[in-house]
Design brief:
Elements lengths: L1 H8 L5 E2 L11 E3 L6 E2 L7 E5 H6 L15 E5 L6 E5 L2 E2 L11 E5 L2 E2 L13 E8 L13 E7 L7 E9 L3 E11 L4 E12 L3 E3 L5 E2 L2 E15 L2 E12 L7 E2 L3 E2 L5 E2 L7 E2 L5 H7 L8 E2 L1 E13 L4 E18 L9 E18 L6 E21 L9 E24 L2 E25 L3 E6 L2 E18 L2 E12 L20 E14 L4 E24 L2 E23 L5 E16 L1 E8 L6 E7 L10 E9 L1 E3 L2 E12 L2 E3 L4 E3 L2 E11 L5 E8 L7 E5 L6 E4 L4 E9 L1
Parallel strand pairs: 8-11, 15-22
Antiparallel strand pairs: 1-2, 2-3, 4-10, 5-6, 6-7, 8-9, 10-11, 12-13, 12-48, 13-14, 14-17, 15-16, 17-18, 18-24, 19-47, 20-21, 23-25, 24-25, 25-26, 26-27, 27-28, 28-29, 29-30, 29-31, 31-32, 32-33, 33-34, 34-35, 35-36, 36-39, 37-38, 39-41, 40-41, 41-44, 42-43, 44-45, 45-48, 46-47
């Protein structure tokens, strides 16, 4: 009985092969397919990042994952706290908080359904598993892009503790720590905490005031109870508070405001600007001298039951997640009040997932599951256009969104021969999405209701996958798969009085064709993984526009009838000599519209006032996504008088991409980090000197023309620091 429960009970625990001398590539045990496998045995495009790699690669937030995962891009929309994920070009650019991710993000198997909820979860991490391609036959939620599984440190009956502290440029201070141990023969616990302070790297061009200080605090507690050899129950609770400064934008070109003041384009990478009107500050309850800020709170809890019946294993997970978003951004980046924005959202998600899985030792393996979620997303945002000549007002957009999802899924694997496995799965999902009491209204100087609606969208969609896995040799296997992925539809919740903007957009779905190979050579000193894919994309959800009149347009998420994306990835890891590890990955993707009639211009008749919109056929045009990305890392563990000295450098090169918000091209960039770590023979203590953004690259993340000023969101300048780690 005890042996039988090992795999399911440890489903969230990492296992790394013993390799203290650095003579081979570590084999990390993952649960990407809800069963324990080494990362090389998973017949899918998978990248695993161990907890010890996160600091060296400067992965502090979910957004930083793009620097280490092929074909992954994550952007904070317009400098705000709303990350948007794109995997192999599948993803969006929505800055509102009410639409689900195209890439599923999970924290210990609990979905973080909305991008804004992924803030402040990256501490005490055991590993991160990133699956590329549509998911649905093994996971609670259904996605077209892929899945990011964040696995936190698990409780242990043995006493362990650790602390890490760092100090760097602009008075940035970080502290993380954990303690774990047994409370009784059957109960163990783990407590982890973190705080991040300082780091203000931006400067107001007018006043010299600094911007960018962090003020983040979080804690997580995990309890593990083993009432019997066949049953394990995990409890988890976490809390986070983020009262950091917001991210300032920069002027991409010269700008003259309504008062005639001239602002030259920003050339110093640290320069930014902001302002807030007294009327707007009063409405949102902020200081009349407020600078961009966040005041967000998140918490949640889950319970996970695993029980082995012998003939099958039952896994049941119930969770509640809550997130409050209060965030002020200045999207014109000047003292002028043309595009001040304040987001306010209260998100609550109750979810439950139940799975029944066969033993993993037989030639036939199956999994049955069901998933339910009830979601509440209330809130909206305020917009300050008080200094914009043609508006001169302050808007409020608000809504109460309700989503109910019920899904069932099944997956089956059959060993046809000792070296050939056929697998298949199917999923059906029913979802009802309502946007209750949507209101877009002018609050100042005089009240005007511009739009109200109560749209509803129901979805009944299926997804599935068929795959063939062929063990070509002992350390090499090839796979091929065809899958159908689906992402929910939704609502564009922007400030507009245009009824068409409130129409729900449809779910998107795609047929994905993928082939790949995974191989190891030279006694696990060389690993070569490759994958190629083609996506037949239907009802592609794109950040588009609609026209409200001549020369006036507003954003709206639209469905493109047909598109395609194809590409490939190559990952190589090598240990040419003991202690030296080289990791390289290169990915390329390209996509085109197959069917798309897009609005081009609008002309208003001066007599009748009617607006005529003309359309342009965009079939054959490239999709707005970067083509090439190249990522890698080199580390060399050198023995020096029984101590270890490890220099390390890692980098990310992302190709240019078209910005639909600014109608221009965001240039390609190189981003590199470097570390030098020194540790004694027992390795309980480490000292690391680090440089982030080693070459002080000017990295543009997003561009925008929200009203009239063209602005850009940029990544931080070069920073240096020292980090101390101690484990017991």
């Amino acid at each position: 009985m005890a042996a039988g429960i090992t795999a399911p009970a440890l489903a969230q625990d990492a296992s790394v092969s013993t390799n203290q001398d650095g003579s081979r590539i570590d084999e990390i045990v993952v649960t990407a397919q809800h069963r324990e496998q080494t990362e090389q045995d998973v017949p899918a495009a998978l990248t695993v990042i161990g907890g010890d790699q996160l600091e060296n690669r400067n992965i502090q937030t979910v957004s930083d994952l793009e620097n280490s995962v092929p074909s992954l891009e994550i952007d904070q929309q317009f400098g705000g706290g709303q990350p948007q994920f794109r995997m192999r070009g599948v993803g969006g650019t929505d800055y509102a908080a009410n639409n689900t991710n195209t890439v599923g993000v999970y924290l210990d198997e609990v979905p973080l359904t909305y991008g804004v909820m992924t803030q402040d979860v990256m501490f005490d991490i055991d590993r991160i598993e990133v699956l590329r391609g549509p998911q649905g036959t093994l996971y609670g939620r259904n996605t077209t892009g892929g899945a990011v599984n964040i696995v936190t440190g698990a409780p242990s009956h043995e006493f362990h503790a650790g602390v890490g502290v760092s100090y760097g440029s602009f008075d940035a201070f970080d502290l993380q720590g954990y303690v774990t141990g047994g409370l009784s023969d059957t109960l163990s616990a783990r407590l982890a905490v973190m705080t991040a302070q300082g780091g203000a790297w931006q400067v107001n061009r007018d006043t010299g005031e600094e911007l960018g200080d962090r003020n983040q605090n979080a804690a997580r507690v995990r309890l593990r109870w083993d009432p019997s050899a066949a049953t394990r129950i995990d409890f988890e609770g976490d809390y986070s508070r983020n009262k950091s400064d917001g991210r300032g934008l920069q002027l991409l070109q010269d700008f003259t405001d309504a008062s005639g003041r001239f602002y030259p384009a920003d050339t110093d990478h640290r320069i930014t600007g902001w302002g807030i009107s007294s009327e707007f500050a009063s409405i949102i309850g902020a200081s009349p001298n407020a600078k961009p800020f966040r005041d967000n709170t998140g918490y949640g809890g889950s319970i996970r039951l695993t029980s082995d019946f012998g003939w099958s294993t039952l896994t049941a997970i119930a969770a509640h997640r809550h997130f409050e978003r209060r965030e002020f951004n200045d999207w014109d980046s000047t003292a002028s009040n043309e595009a001040g924005t304040f987001f306010f959202n209260d998100i609550d998600i109750d979810s439950a997932e139940v799975r029944l899985a066969s033993p993993q030792s037989g030639a036939t393996r199956w999994l049955l599951g069901t998933y339910y979620a009830a979601e509440s997303v209330d809130g909206g945002f305020y917009s300050d256009f008080s200094d914009y000549p043609s508006l001169g007002n302050i808007w409020k957009t608000s809504y109460q969104q309700r989503v109910h999802t019920l899904a069932g899924f099944v997956n089956l694997e059959q060993d046809l021969t000792p070296s050939l496995t056929l697998s298949g799965g199917v999923r059906f999902e029913h979802e009802v999405r309502r946007l209750n009491n949507f209101r877009s209204e002018i609050l100042w100087p005089t009240y005007t209701l511009r739009a109200s609606a109560n749209p509803r969208r129901e979805m009944n969609e299926w997804s599935g996958k068929v795959a063939l896995d062929w063990q070509v040799a002992q350390d090499a296997h090839a796979y091929a798969s065809i899958s159908r992925g689906v992402k929910s539809g939704g609502f564009t919740t922007y400030n507009s009085g245009i009824p068409q903007q409130l129409d729900p957009y449809d779910p998107e779905w795609l047929i994905a064709y993928e082939v790949g190979v995974k191989s190891e050579f030279l006694d696990n000193r060389l690993r070569v993984n490759a994958a190629g894919f083609y996506y037949d994309y239907h009802d592609y959800q794109l950040q588009g526009v609609i026209y409200t009149g001549a020369n006036t347009r507003v954003g709206r998420i639209v469905n493109v009838p047909r598109a395609n994306i194809w590409g490939g990835e190559l990952e190589i890891t090598a240990v040419p000599v003991d202690g030296l590890q080289i990791s390289q990955s290169v990915a390329y993707k390209i996509g085109h519209f197959d069917e798309f009639m897009a609005p081009s211009t609008a002309v208003t008749d001066p007599v009748t006032g009617e607006t005529t919109i003309t359309y342009v056929d965009r079939a054959g045009e490239r999709l707005p996504l970067p083509g090439l990305d190249y990522k890698g890392a080199i580390s060399w563990r050198l023995p020096v008088a029984n101590w270890a000295v490890t220099p390390e450098i890692n980098w990310n090169r992302r190709g240019d991409r078209y910005s639909t918000s600014d109608l221009s091209v965001i240039p390609a960039f190189w981003l590199a980090n470097a570390n030098l770590t020194i540790s004694p023979p027992d390795e309980r203590f480490q000292v690391t000197l680090y440089v982030r953004n080693l070459f002080d690259a000017y990295v543009q993340e997003t561009r925008n023309r929200f009203i009239s000023a063209r602005t850009v969101s940029t990544n931080p300048v070069r920073t240096v620091g020292i980090r101390l780690n101690y484990v017991y």
